[in-house]
């Protein structure tokens, strides 16, 4: 069978290479986190499929790179139209495949997928570039030339949205693409290929290779004809990719993990801070930028905890297809075991559980209870390693210097959240925090014009606006002499 029927939508389970569907000799099983049941058998690609996809992308590159920006932008907008027409199908398929809330997919995630294509189409046409400038009478002219074939490896926690953060700017820049989605949530990438084909995207410009990271992904990132690699995922996997890319000096963009600080001063709007702290359980804690290290000023610690537990206790955990559900399942049995391993080791080390602390057995093995620890050694595993589940740790502090030092005492630097009623303190503390993004008295306000990425082990490079084009292009400066032209 080459097609899976998922919540009433037919999804082709083969690769999309050079404008046609391609099967593999082997397949792998795709499970739904909702109930742990198989929903599809997916083509299991490897070096052969990776080679074919790169070859198709390389063959399509000259014509696509030469396509005028206005025409590329028109096709990207047509893809956005296609996403909007199939929004409900995309939402329910992705909820079934990765367990995230249907209400989030309908109201935020899938509209954002369409926006990703429209934004980079608009940016290509209207924002990219700056006026020429002179040097001793010579004119400097900066251009963004397409780099070539791009290998894009996307994660499972927001599959289509995070994939299109990469696909849209890469295509807008004039590159051709091979997308390798996560084997834990591969279905929406296949639907994207259908949408792009229906929009009129030329054959070979977008290719989708399904498979296991160690097989299809490894072949892609080591391929000598790949000119850009963009990866979102874990630090250990990023190190493997970087070693493979080094052999070909292939430029990398890496958006990796986080253990972000969430800082609450005594002068903060406490209800606002608590509401945003509880929001860190969003998507069952499977969000790289979540503020999982709560730092609360000592004088308000008890009141913060009281309000937090009250609000967190109102969260409804259950089937993500129910609009009333607040927290759905974790992605995969292996991931639940990993999360629970962190929690059980923390308990054994003496950390105190204020909330949760294990799976929600009433719902089955894939649903993990929102968990809050206190009395945690700040250098312990639970306080320093990315759990990527609904697990927060609570610390207290007495002054700015103490909390800044604690917040920055991390291998990561993806994001930070800061709550205070003092605007001067907000600016002062934000400036001292090591993070790619600092949200002050808010959370997850994201504009594609702004850079997104992390410091330290949270990644290399930035995505968004000009930063995306800087990565996906060879930025060139042409210098024209002031005289000497022949008529």
UniProtKB/TrEMBL annotation:
GO terms for molecular function: oxidoreductase activity, acting on the aldehyde or oxo group of donors, NAD or NADP as acceptor. Signal peptide: none annotated. Residues 25-477 form the Aldehyde dehydrogenase domain. InterPro entries: Ald_DH/histidinol_DH, Ald_DH_C, Ald_DH_CS_GLU, Ald_DH_N, Aldehyde_DH_dom. Keywords: Oxidoreductase. It holds the Pfam family Aldedh. SUPFAM superfamilies: ALDH-like (SSF53720). This is 5-carboxymethyl-2-hydroxymuconic-semialdehyde dehydrogenase. It comes from Amycolatopsis tolypomycina.
